[in-house]
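Discrete fold record:
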Amino acid sequence: MLNRPKYKTARRLGANVFDKTMSAKFALRESRRKIEKRPKARSEYGLQLLEKQKAKTLYGVSERVFSKYVKAILDKKGANSPEQLMAVLESRLDNVVYRMGFAPTRQASRQMVAHGHFTVNGTRVTIPSYSVKIGDKIAIRDGSKAKTLFTGLDEKLKTYNWPSWLALDIAKKECKVQGLPKLAPTEVIFDGAAVLNFYSR
């Protein structure tokens, strides 16, 4: 069951910020609320702030870390694009673990990484914000493969669709980063340009 703080956050930012609110039940409740209550118009600043909050919440990143990501992009001449911001967020190890289908949510993937269940190029990594690069191999640590949190993973992965920039070896439970992170337009949940403009003020 989704706790109240997350439910309220999803109502404010959108259902897609949490996996558990991407349900027909939540959508039905929200459609009824919109009929009952007309939303207030937002200023440009308010809209940019909302997009920033969406991005932070979706990837589970603190304000300190998120602002560091954005400022690093803005400092690079010619690199301050929404695609660059998306690539930085998608390259986080906890997100890659989630994208591979090894964890049901990003929150779960952060915990798994922090508890040392994954390796990068054979080395155990416990930092969820670790940035993977093209050619890196991410795998479930041998000592963790038999743990209950990975029970039924083989069956799940048989029908799982992972991103094109990741190559997954189901038998080895290993993934290789084979390209730069990219999302289809329908998969983009927040406005990256609005986020960059917010920090450019």
